[in-house]
Amino acid sequence: MPRYLDRDRIAIVAAVVVPLVVSAILVPFRESFSNTNVALVLVVTVVAVAANGHRLAGALAAVSAAVWFDFFFTRPYQRFTITKSADVQTAVLLLVVGLAVSQLAARARRLHLVAITDAGYLARLHDTAELAQSTKSPDTVVDHVAAQLTDLLGLRGCRFEYGSLIGHPPRLEQDGTVIWDRRRWDVERLGLPDREVELRTFGNGHFYGRFMLDPTPGTIPSLQARLVAVTLADQVGAALDTAGNG
């Protein structure tokens, strides 16, 4: 988790600093380049920050680029004042285009990561389904899924309990949410609760048991990961139901 926080901080700092640095480098050449060309260079800078950061970083980079364009490249120089209407239009366009392009770049990067992640999730589901079909022992599927859940959700441990429910621990629901004391737990902000979380297993409408998830403090599994976890538990339920009816 700290690694992602550090990366976010770096992206925010870069969003503010990089357009300033690029603008300072271009200052000696401002009489040779038109302000339109300078604005285009700054848009490229915004895209570079957004592609390696996130939406907020891209938006800050766009604002920073517009501010430093005004400060360094519109008369009077070194003042946040614009006297020429053409420069006003260029500054506004730089801000608008920078914001739009930065959001597109951040979205493209996000979609690329999701695609890679989804491939991993699909592989987990495929491997589990294949094992459920090839083995005659549902316990093998249970053990396999327990290991998958540990890795998928970043758990300290995971065990399976057969039979009836005991106690009222936090529960991972079918929609990926976590319910604790009849209230929805904010996983995105707080991570999983600091105690065992149950993931119930059903097969053909019958309750067969539950996985008891032991979360690692500070780990925040994504909604996608939690939904895959629920699907894996359903595969165990199907395997247990098939064995019970076999």
UniProtKB/TrEMBL annotation:
Ranges annotated as spanning the membrane: 12-29
UniProt-annotated location(s): Membrane
Domain Sensor protein KdpD transmembrane: 13-112
GO CC annotation terms, alphabetical: plasma membrane
Pfam (any one): DUF4118
Domain of life: Bacteria
BP GO annotations: monoatomic ion transmembrane transport
Keyword Transferase in record: yes
Membrane topology: Multi-pass membrane protein
Keywords per UniProt: ATP-binding, Ion channel, Ion transport, Kinase, Membrane, Nucleotide-binding, Phosphoprotein, Transferase, Transmembrane, Transmembrane helix, Transport, Two-component regulatory system
Main location as per UniProt: membrane
Protein name per the record: Osmosensitive K+ channel histidine kinase-like protein
Record organism: Streptosporangium roseum (strain ATCC 12428 / DSM 43021 / JCM 3005 / KCTC 9067 / NCIMB 10171 / NRRL 2505 / NI 9100)
